[in-house]
Amino acid sequence: MNRVLLIRLSHLGDIILTEPVVRSIRAAHPGAEIEFLTREMYRDVVELFDGIDSVHTLEIPGRDQSLFDLSRTIRNVCNSRYDLVFDLHNNLRSRWIRLQLRADKVNTYRKNWRARRRAVRKKLHKAGLHTIDLYLDVLKGTDIPIAARNPRVTIPVENSGQMLEDHDLRQGEYVVFAVGASHPTKHYPIPQWVDLAEAVVAEFDTNVVIVEKERHGYLNLFDGLAKSGRLRVITGLQIPMLAGLLASSRLTVSNDSGVMHLSAAVGTPTAGLFGPTHPSLGFAPLGEKCVAVTTDESCSPCSRHGASHCYRDERYCFTNMDAGMIIGQIRRVLDVG
């Protein structure tokens, strides 16, 4: 096998979960040319994968752009014949893309959407197939055995060191809180984050670093703890620098988000907070010291992606997830009594 292309256009967490496929291909074919097609905004994370020779990117066409424009872009960035193409996205756009490619064989990711829909409809809490196993299923029918299951990304030493220097942090002396997520409904309430931050500082004698994409007004609720010198807020980090920050952290506590998977992939103990979503949908963080925290409410999961509006008088999936419950899970991943 000489040339292989993997297609996954978005999003951050899903792209990270495709990494074991890349590592398995590289282990089976050390001399192959392995290429990855994604959106430009995710180039940085794919470049953290060991074994990728080149990353092709495109901007997803808007309503004013035609499939002809997309076809021309694909021909420009992927103009060689491939022995094997792995479509790890399997949507209308990725299907159109693979039609434009010259490939001897195409293997496609199976989304298992029926099982996920059933889990939402019947409010199932029993663990089903993890999404990473569905990605690895694309290796069936090839000569590529599964070489890894847990995602892993490699952080350049300078990224981690520069991150610590820029923000006057010391390795292992802080805990990261990732308070954002793709949908507001997946956000653990900020007042509860504040309670949790105070509990973590008191319980583990550590500092807390809040990470978010942008500086939102709600982050001011952390000002009291920030004035004590035990907490700081860092916004707008690019993926390599964020990965460096996570890699040097003692622990990450995150909403169900791409940052949760990035933290697990750099090997940091990680606690993921699942409210409207649920680990049974196949997106729990993977790693030796990772845990998915959920209250297993009778109404959870309420949707496949956590975007649905809550119909109850309050979001019990989060309000019942108090600081004490999360601290208990943190003790597990940190192996402390």
Tell me the series of helices and strands, N- to C-terminal: EHHEHEHEHEHHHEHEHEHEHEEHH
CATH architecture descriptor name of the largest domain: 3-Layer(aba) Sandwich
The helix tally amounts to 14
Rounded mean pLDDT score? 93
CATH class descriptor of the largest domain: Alpha Beta
Question: Which structural class best describes the helix and strand composition?
Answer: alpha/beta
Helix content class: 25-40%
Domain tally: 2
The fourth-level CATH homologous superfamily of the largest domain is Glycogen Phosphorylase B
**Gap between N and C termini, in Å?**
51 Å
What strand line-up does the widest sheet have? 8-7-6-9-10-11
The major pleated sheet works out as: 6 strands, parallel
Descriptive notes:
- The protein is an alpha/beta fold and 337 residues long.
- It folds into 2 domains: 3-139, Rossmann fold; 157-334, Glycogen Phosphorylase B (Rossmann fold, 3-Layer(aba) Sandwich), CATH 3.40.50.2000.
- 35% of the residues lie in helices and 16% in strands.
- The chain contains 14 helices and 11 strands.
- The chain has helices at residues 12-17, 19-28, 43-46, 67-77, 92-100, 113-122, 131-136, 157-166, 190-204, 223-227, 239-247, 258-265, 316-319, 323-334; strands spanning 3-7, 33-39, 54-58, 84-87, 106-108, 174-178, 207-212, 231-235, 251-255, 270-273, 290-293.
- Strand 6, helix 9 (190-204) and strand 7 (207-212) form a beta-alpha-beta unit.
- The longest helix is centred in the middle third of the chain and has 15 residues, at 190-204.
- It is globular, with a radius of gyration of 21 Å.
